[in-house]
């Protein structure tokens, strides 16, 4: 939802006049689409059919890359906001897009942390470590 807000707010301005917003649009739309695809994959439990793919590792790498690129998009978007713009509504939308890009960056960063913990298996407790497979 946060990524959707970023690209929707930027798309509602005259972003094509500023080259910096092209990068922000690319990052936000690309990661929004891929995140929706991962969400549908997990919603339909398709990851169980593709058991060869190491899903925790894939998600950790995806979230880490998304975090790094959203850092660049956030900095680019925030630096390109011009408070003396002659179109006040563009300023408001771009400032809001910068805010939501920052929130999206934080969300992907937190998701990277939790993906790393899932990949390394830090979330297990005493009950799960005692279970043995006797098949």
UniProtKB/TrEMBL annotation:
InterPro entries listed in its UniProt record: MAL, Marvel, MARVEL-CKLF_proteins
Record-level GO BP terms: myelination
GO cellular component: a single term: apical plasma membrane
MF terms (GO), sorted A to Z: structural constituent of myelin sheath
Domain of life: Eukaryota
Chain ranges of the MARVEL domain: 1-120
Compartmental location: Apical cell membrane; Myelin membrane
UniProt main location, coarse: membrane
TM regions (residue ranges): 20-44, 56-81, 96-116
UniProt entry keywords in alphabetical sequence: Cell membrane, Membrane, Transmembrane, Transmembrane helix
Membrane topology designation: Multi-pass membrane protein
PANTHER family (UniProt xref): MARVEL-CONTAINING POTENTIAL LIPID RAFT-ASSOCIATED PROTEIN (PTHR22776), PLASMOLIPIN (PTHR22776:SF9)
Subunit structure: Forms oligomers.
Family, per entry: Belongs to the MAL family.
Protein name per its UniProtKB record: Plasmolipin
Organism: Circaetus pectoralis (black-chested snake-eagle)
